[in-house]
Design brief:
The structure holds two protein chains of two kinds.
Chain A: H1 24-40, H2 42-61, H3 77-89, E1 98-101, E2 107-114, E3 117-123, E4 128-135, E5 138-145, H4 152-162
Antiparallel strand pairs in A: 1-2, 2-3, 3-4, 4-5
Helix pairs in contact in A: 2-3
Chain B: H1 2-16, E1 31-36, E2 42-43, E3 48-49, E4 62-66, H2 72-84, E5 95-100, H3 101-105, E6 110-112, E7 120-124, H4 130-143, E8 145-148
Antiparallel strand pairs in B: 1-4, 1-5, 2-3, 4-7, 5-8, 6-7
The chains are: A alpha+beta, B alpha+beta.
Chain lengths: ~160, ~150
């Protein structure tokens, strides 16, 4: 018998199942969870598509040096690829991020509720993610690595932002 | 004789146009403007400047202008003449984010009034780590006021 086991640290709104399992049963379970999430939240999927569309649009608009007139770097292709992978990896329960390009050419994804309620990640090359959040008078920032799943620190911050 | 007349006329011009004179040193109460050239740097709906507007460029010198004692039309004219017209590619001046100098200084940044062009300054002293830059940009954006260019 195969059972699903959810680690306690992922026991929040933004839990994402991993797809590491290689067996037929694991693949079937993974497919089942994906379909279920898609059915549960069709608007979120449309939103994710909007973020991807915005990403593609910005990669063209910001493809040359000095795109902002202040000396910004063009979109970094590695950052673009990683950002695309990151957006696709976001669970459908997460509101769509706004996509932007940083002056160093990295792609930035931002969730902005109010001026002092904001969380942002910048997707660097070599799987590096820098993040910062402002929650009222509190703030946090750090650096994580994006391997085959989005780091739990990112979900914890999103949870904090939307709670 | 002409030399002295020229000097005298310059003194008169400087005196009567003293509103365009600003002190060399930054006053913590003065207003600093960041001209916005990207629509991703503000939200019209929420009437806010976004942190992206304050992210430093690779040389870690964030270009700003000192706008004290200027009227609104003069502030916009400054932006068009000294920012937009100097750019290699055509850009829109979409708005500006105004912020009190004190708010910049209290984030352990400095304002370097290089006055090149006149009234120009750079926000310097940014930390090397990008995550810290992002955090400061969020703080600055939260304290800035968005001014949109209407025409």
């Amino acid at each position: 018998m195969t059972t699903a086991c959810v680690p306690l640290q992922y026991n929040n709104t933004f839990f994402v199942p991993t797809d590491r399992g290689a067996s037929d049963v694991a693949q079937a379970l993974n497919s089942f969870v994906k379909e279920m999430l898609e059915d549960c939240s069709p608007s979120a999927i449309i939103n994710a598509n909007e973020s991807l569309q915005e990403l593609y649009k910005l990669s063209e608009e910001c493809s040359s040096e000095n795109w902002d007139g202040y000396g910004a770097q063009p979109v970094d292709p590695d950052s673009f690829n990683e950002a695309e992978r990151f957006i696709r990896a976001l669970p459908t329960t997460v509101l769509e991020p706004e996509v932007a390009v940083d002056p160093d050419g990295e792609i930035s994804l931002e969730w902005h509720l109010e001026p002092r309620k904001v969380f942002s990640v910048s997707i660097g090359k070599r799987n590096e993610i820098t993040y910062a959040g402002l929650y009222g008078l509190n703030k946090t920032y750090g650096r994580e690595y994006f391997d085959d799943e989005i780091p739990k620190e990112i979900f914890e911050n999103l949870d904090r932002l939307f709670s | 004789m002409m030399k002295y007349l020229k000097r005298f006329s310059k003194i008169l011009i400087d005196y009567f146009l003293k509103k365009d004179k600003i002190p060399k040193e930054i006053n913590s109460q003065e207003i600093i403007a960041r001209y916005l050239t990207s629509k991703k740097w503000y939200s019209r709906v929420n009437d806010i400047a976004k942190p992206q507007a304050f992210m430093p460029p690779p040389d870690l010198k964030l270009s700003v202008f000192r706008i004290d004692n200027l009227s609104e039309p003069e502030i916009w004219k400054l932006g068009f003449k000294k920012v937009i017209d100097k750019m290699n590619q055509p850009r829109h001046l979409r708005g500006r984010a105004d912020i009190q100098a004190l708010r910049i200084l209290e984030n352990n940044l400095q304002i370097d009034p290089d006055n090149t062009p006149p009234r120009h300054a750079n926000i310097i002293g940014w930390p090397e780590l990008k995550e810290e830059q992002k955090s400061i940009a969020q703080e600055l954006a939260a304290k800035a006021s968005l001014m949109l260019h209407t025409s």
